[in-house]
Amino acid sequence: MPETKTPLSAMEKELIINELQNSPVQITIVSFGAKDTASFPEPVIIEANLTPLSVTGNYLFICRNNINSPVNGEKIRVSFYARKLGYYFDSSIRILSSGMCIPLAASIYRREDISKSPVNAKCTLTYNAKDSSINIDCIPMKDYDVFSVQKFESVPEHISENVRKMVRRFVQDSKKGIGGPVGNGLHLIPAARYLCSKLNPTDAIQGRKNPLDLLYLDETRLLLGDRDNSWNLELENEYTATFTFKLSALVTRTVALTCSVNDRLGSDEKKVCAVLKIIGCKEEDKRFLCERVLKK
Q1: What ranges make up the beta strands (E) of the chain?
Q2: What span, in angstroms and rounded, lies between the C-alpha atoms of 83 and 19?
Q3: For 18-49, what is each residue's pLDDT tens digit?
Q4: What is the percent of the chain where pLDDT is above 70?
């Protein structure tokens, strides 16, 4: 669970604690353990009250939700918002007579801002709206091999069976004329993996519109994930995807692709994948993509 490891100062931590004590707070927890044995293999949002322990001077989150079978002593990561900014700390579950509790750790960290993640490739999706242009950041999804063929072996084990079922359903729907054509189907595995995953809802800044998630690219299509369907990429709409590839410390290469949405894949109304067909690309840019990025 990589994050920025810069702990808050004592004064910053005190300000956070003072704010959290004023009212119930929503916290998101996820286990560090193996997916098949963890109590919380995917992020779970619960309400809690931060309470001081007068004897030790420490603080404890007393959870208000009923959680199924938590394990005493299980290591977890806790994320929360304060003053609209995202924070996290690592702790462990404590089962007391009052229910499940979580000790506040000595060190609290700011959450990484996903819109500013250091990556070797950046993408911006642009479209025209009335008299202006709208630019949307597209951030390469962590742990997805965006520029390579993604196989079932790369899917986390705890969702692998659901991903396989969803891919089969996509293919069957296409044969029935439901949705867009799947072509060679190389985008279906990352799409199903994205839709079957429970994404951590805690962003670095509360209330900010999420960027799009870049899931897959080849010379024919672009796959983007919209985790809360806030951008509503519509079928047949035309977009320009501008990629900037960092080839070295001083050299970058920009590639512009004209695309149109030819399918929308979604397991629910809040999280969707937009499949964009590449309909325009300079020959030298296509050659660069195939030879330098896609390694074909």
Answers
A1: 25-31, 44-52, 59-63, 75-82, 85-92, 94-96, 99-103, 109-110, 121-129, 132-140, 212-217, 221-226, 238-246, 252-266, 272-280
A2: 8
A3: 888 877 888 888 887 655 666 776 778 888 88
A4: 85
The answer to whether the predicted template modeling score (pTM) of the entire model surpasses 0.70 is no
Q: Which residue has the tokens 């054509």?
A: 181
* 27, amino acid identity: I
Which pLDDT score, from 0 to 100, does residue 296 have?
67
Query: 48-69, pLDDT tens digit by residue?
Result: 888 887 666 688 888 877 666 6
- 3-state SS, residue 193: helix
Rounded to the nearest angstrom, the gap between the alpha carbon of residue 199 and the centroid of all alpha carbons in its chain is 5
Supply φ then ψ for residue 51, to 5 degrees: -125, 130
Token digits of residue 220: 């024919």
Q: Is the dihedral of CA 226, 228, 234, 240 positive or negative?
A: negative
Q: What's the token pair of residue 4?
A: 């920025």
Tokens (6 digits) for 120:
């070797």
Paired strand residues for 78: 29, 89
How would you classify residue 295: left for phi > 0, otherwise alpha for psi between -120 and 50, otherwise beta?
left
